[in-house]
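Changelog note: in this version the structure field was regenerated for every chain. One regenerated record is shown below for reference.
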Amino acid sequence: LLRSLGYSTDADIVNLFDLADEISSKTKRSFKAAIGRQLASNVTIETVTEVVDEDTGELLEERREREVIFPAYHEVAEEDYDKLKEAGIESIFVVRSLDDSQDDVDRSSLLNTLKKDPTHSEEEALEHIYFKLRGTEAPDLDTARGVLERLFFSEKRYDLGEVGRYRINSRLRLDQPLDTLTLTIEDIVSIIRELILLQNGKSTVDDIDHLGNRRVRTVGEQLGAQFSLGLARMARTIKERMNLRDAENFTPQDLGNARTVSSVINTFFGTNQLSQFMDQTNPLAELTHKRRMSALGPGGLTRERAGFEVRDVHYTHYGRLCPIETPEGPNIGLISSLCVHAKINGFGFIETPYRVAKKGKVTEEIEFLTAEQEDNAIIAQANAPLTKAGRFQNKYVKCRYKGDFPIVEPNEVQFMDIAPNQIVSPAASLIPFLEHDDANRALMGSNMQRQAVPLLRSDSPIVGTGLEDRVARDSRAVLVAEGNGVVEYVDANKIVVRYAPEGGDEDVIFGDLTKTYDLTKFRRTNQDTCINQKPMVEEGQKVKSGTVLTDGFSTDNGELALGKNVLVAFMPWRGYNFEDAIVISERLVSQDVYTSVHIEEFELQVRDTKRGEEELTREIPNVSEEATKDLDERGIIRIGAEVKAGDIIVGKITPKGETDPTPEEKLLRAIFGDKAGDVKDASLKAPPGMNGVVIDTKLFSRRKLDPASKKQEQKNLAAIDAELETEMEALNEAFWQKFFKLTKGNKTKYPVENRDGEIIVKEGASFTKNAFKDIEPISINSRTVSTGTRKIDNRVLKLFRNYQAEHRRIVGHAKRERHQVQMGDELPPGIVQLAKVYVAKKRKIQVGDKMAGRHGNKGVIAKIVPEEDMPFLEDGTPVDIVLNPL
C-alpha cells in the first residue's frame, strides 16, 4: 500500500519509519561500519534490455528488470564491498538495533513485511493491489491507480465528516484542516506508526465506553439525515421523469413531488423507536424526557446484546451523564439523563463546565471540557475550601485525574467543579441530602418523582434543594415577566402587563407596550393529567424581568411542588402497614389533600359509508328525550353537563343496510314518508365507572361543496378581509404618526424612492402629510429616507424595520386564517367530521394507590382509617400517615 502511494523503494519506507541507518559504500573505510549488521532492505540493480526489430533496426521496447544482489536481512560481510562497487551502489541501509533506537520501539514487524513483500516498485504494488481486490490482472496502470484512488481518497465513496476528521486528528496527533473529509497519505502513515506503538505497548487501545469515543446524535442531525434521504429519492424520480418526458412542455410541478420528502419525515416521526410520546405527567417528567439520552435505537445497541460494561458507570460520565437516574428494568444503564450543567457541542460530544485554576488560585472564568480534554486535567472538587481571594485553604487538595483520586498541591490544580450537583440530573438534584441516600433507593426516588400526579393544591417542599424554581421555570410550567413593568389587568384567564420602554423606544415600537398572557385553563396532557395556570400577581403590582406571573400544574409560588407536606408517624398500626403497606387518615380523603383532576378525551368519527353518509344529530331513533336533553343541535353534549356511565356524549346515526321491508314497515313508510326508521343509533356513550363534567368540545369538518357551505365560506372570508383591512389601517396610521414625530422640522436629503426605484418624494421636501400623501409605507424603500442627521436616520430605519415585521405578522395571520377556511380541517381519508369531547373528573386517593417520598421510600395504601382512630401527638394532633418503622 505504501509503495502504491508514492513510497516506491525500500529506502523510502525505511526512511519514513526511521528503521535503519544509511551507510556509505563509496569507500572501504566508511563501509566497515556496516560489517556484521543486517540489511534493512533488498539491494537491487535495474537492468534495461532493448528489444530491436531485426529487419528495420527500430527500437520496439525497453525491458526493465530488477535483480536482487543482496536480500533484506542479509548479514553484511567484508567481501560484499566489491560487489556493491561493481553495481555502482553508493549507500546501503542497515537495521538499526533496539539499543540504537531513540524511542525504544521495536519495528521489526515492518522489516518482516518488507522482507516478504513481492513488489519492488510503485507500478508492481498497484498491479498487486488491483489483483488482490478484483481477482484479475489490471488492464493498465491508470486503471489500477484509479481503483486505489476511489477506494481511499474519493469523497463520493465515503465521508469522514467533521467529527471523523476531528477524532482522527486528536487520536493520531495530526493537524489536518477539518474540511479534509477523506483519508490522506499522512493519515495512513500515522495509522501504521500508531499500530507499531500499540504492538510495543507504547500506546493504549481506545476504551469503547469512554465518552470521548461516544457521541450524541441529536434530533436535528437525525432529521437532517432523513431529509437527505427524502431529497435523494426525489432527485432520482425527477431524473427518471425528465428522461421519460418530452423536453419542451413540462413544469417543475410535473417533475417533483413533495410527498416523497414528507413521507420519509412522517415515517421518521411515526415509526422511529426514539420518536416517543412525551411524558407530561408533571413538569419534571416533561423536562427529564427532553433531556434523555439513549444507547438504543437505529444504529445503536439492543437490550439483549448490551453487556455489563456498556451499562456501567464510567469515570467520564462525571458531570455529563447522571449515574443515578436510569430505568430499573432491562434498559438499566442504556438510557440515561443529561446532567444539570452539561451541554452538547457541535461535534456531538457532551461537555461539562469547570472553573479555571491558575497557580493555586481559582478564577471566575468558566471553561466547558469534553471527556477527552478532561483526561489531561487535574480537577478539584466543588467543596474544596477556598479563601476569600479564591485560593485553596488546605496544603493539599483532593482531586480527580482520569479515573483516579490523587491528593496534590494547590499549584498543580488546573480546574475546579462549579457545583456539587454538577454530577447528577435535575430529577436527582431535587432529592435533599442525596449524599446520604443509598444509590439504589436514590435511583427509585429520582424515577418516582416523575410519576407524581398533579394535585388540586400542591405544597412546595419544606426541605428543598434550591433547584425547584429552576425546574418550574425551565419546563415552562409557569409564565415569567419579560422585563420591568406594571400589571394592568388580571383575571383567571389572562394577565396584561405594561412594560417600560427602553431608552425612548416607544417612538419606533408598534403595537401597545402592553403584553397579554393568555393562561392555560384545564388543558389535557398526554397522560390525561390537567394543566391549569393560576395568576400570582395583582393589578398595579410592579414586576421585574423574571418575576413569576402564574402558578402552573404541580407548582407552588413558582417552585416545583410534586406532593404535599403531611404529618407522618413511624410505627406499626395493627399490622395494616406491614412491609410496604401504608395506613392513611380519612382527613386526606375528605379534605381533598391528595385529590387530582384528570381529563379524558372522547372522539367520534363521522364516516362516508357505502350506504350513505353518517350524521351527527340529537334526533336518535328509540332514545328518550331525557337521554338527549344535554345534546345540542349537532348532537354534541353541552359544556358543563355532568356525565355518568352510559350517558350519550355524541349522538350519531348510521344508515342501515337495505332489506326487504315487512308489511308493517311498508305501512309505516306509507304513513311517515320514504326514509322513516332506516337509520340506527351509533352514538358515543360514556364508559363504565365514568363520572365527570364536560369542559370542552371540538368539531372538525372537511370542506363541503354544497351551496350553503360555499355561502358560509364566502361570508367567513369577507370577515377575515375586513379585519385585515381594519388592522392595516390602524398600523399605517400609527406608522405615519411616529414617522412625522421623528422627522418633524426636517427635509429630505435625497429623493425618496419606492421599492421599484421610482422617485415618489422629491429631494428637499418637508416631512409632512402632504408630501407623503397616498403613499403606502410598505412600498417605500427605507434606505432612501434620510434627514441628514445620522441619529434620526437610524431611528427612522428602526421604525421601518419594526413596521415591516408587524406588517408581515398581520398579513401572515390573515393568510393562515383564509387557508383554514378554504381548505377545511385535515382529516384522514373517508372521515367527514370528527367530534372531540373533553371530560374532567376528580379522583380522590383510595386503597391500592401508590405513595412515595423523594428517597425511594414507596408503598401502597392498605387502609384508610377514621381520623379519631389515628395515633396522635402529645398535643392531640392526629397524624396523617402511618409508615412501617422497619
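Spot check on this record: Residues 707-742 form the longest helix (36 residues). The longest strand covers residues 596-609.
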